[in-house]
Amino acid sequence: MRRVVVTGLGVVAPNGIGREAFWKACVEGRSGVGPIRSFDASRHPVRIAAEIADFDVAPFLPPEQRKSLKIMGRATRFGVGAACLAVADSGLDLARENPERVGVVMGTGLVPMDLPELAPMLLAACNENGQLDSTRLGEKGDGALFPLWILKYLPNMVATHISLVLNAQGPNSTITTACVAGTQAVGEGFRLVSRGDADIVLAGGADSRIDPLMLLAYTALGALSRSDRPAQEVSRPFDRLRDGFVLGEGAGVLVLEEWEHARRRGATIYAEVLGFGTSFDAYSVTKPEPDARGAARAITAALHEARVDPHDVDYINAHGTSTRLNDLMETRAVKRVFGEGAKALPLSSIKSMVGHLIGAAGAVEAVALALTLHDGVLPPTINLTHPDAECDLDYVPNAARQRRVRTAVSTSFGFGGQNGALVMRRV
Fold this sequence. Notes:
Blueprint: E1 4-13, E2 16-17, H1 19-28, E3 34-35, E4 48-49, H2 74-90, E5 102-107, H3 115-124, H4 134-140, H5 157-166, E6 172-175, H6 181-194, E7 200-207, H7 212-221, E8 250-258, H8 259-264, E9 271-280, H9 293-306, E10 315-317, H10 324-338, E11 347-348, H11 351-354, H12 361-375, E12 377-378, E13 401-402, E14 407-414, E15 418-425
Parallel strand pairs: 5-6, 5-7, 10-11, 10-14
Antiparallel strand pairs: 1-2, 1-8, 1-9, 3-4, 7-8, 9-15, 12-13, 14-15
């Protein structure tokens, strides 16, 4: 098995675009949560989110590929931008690499369809009483659709467009495991390089669900905060006053490279990926397993593959959603795996600053983990002002902490009982 290192980081996040802007915001504890601006949410029960503002992917595209913009969904645009930023950060000249040895693995989730785009088709299919008529839909609906419309909403389009833009002809995969997708994509990318299927893999996640229908769906599920606090104070993982997460959007991509390949070209190495673990609760479609056995199995599996003793872990980039059930479960999982050492082990959640990016969450958190290892700074969990008695670990509250970190873990836990964990080490 070959050694795998992180040599490039690209991120499009609500609190910063690009590695430097994103990391500076995280270290300073700056939130990207605010009032929804991409559509009129004034009559929605939830009116805040962690949106990406003013991002244009066109400058990242070769001129001959800019016609593809009309079939790029919002998540795809974020993913392509993050991938191009990661390659630029790595210093790689992909034109000089064998394209068949360059792979792409991206995590994403349910791709919401643009309601304004659907409106003409639905209106054309309504009868004289204003009711949707399936017969009329078949007769008149297709003429109201842009012919390549479906290509905008297939989940694999994020990885597809990244590969087209960067001419990556190696393994290409899409992971759709809800909130764990980004973490699993990085884990699968790590294994592709480790076992020799590729020399370079662009791995990460991209997601965007801030639209009228998805906002209502997550609200109906009871997952989103309805707090009337100032927007930047609503996402508060592990805090007693939390009442749900804040929906976010964005993308994170890591350049995973074989160790010797990176050394030969004198690449900057942010971290080494040592292991990946995954498991399934088999407990509930929506609720995490309360005693955290499934989550603990994923962390333990990652440590086992990494050949790392739990006592040697210095920090955890936590899933930390700002929901009571998930925060309690994660706290219990850490205690299960690390035992008495859990009390001395710092962990923090950047979701307090960027919201929950769903399929992109684990990828953006993996970017933050690599930067923690490289720079020796633990990002804070902001808004942690009312400690929960049942969440009694060190969550690095409200201010970043300087600390040299040798080995660290990133965790992700998703709807349906999906669990994932990554282990990285400072080189």
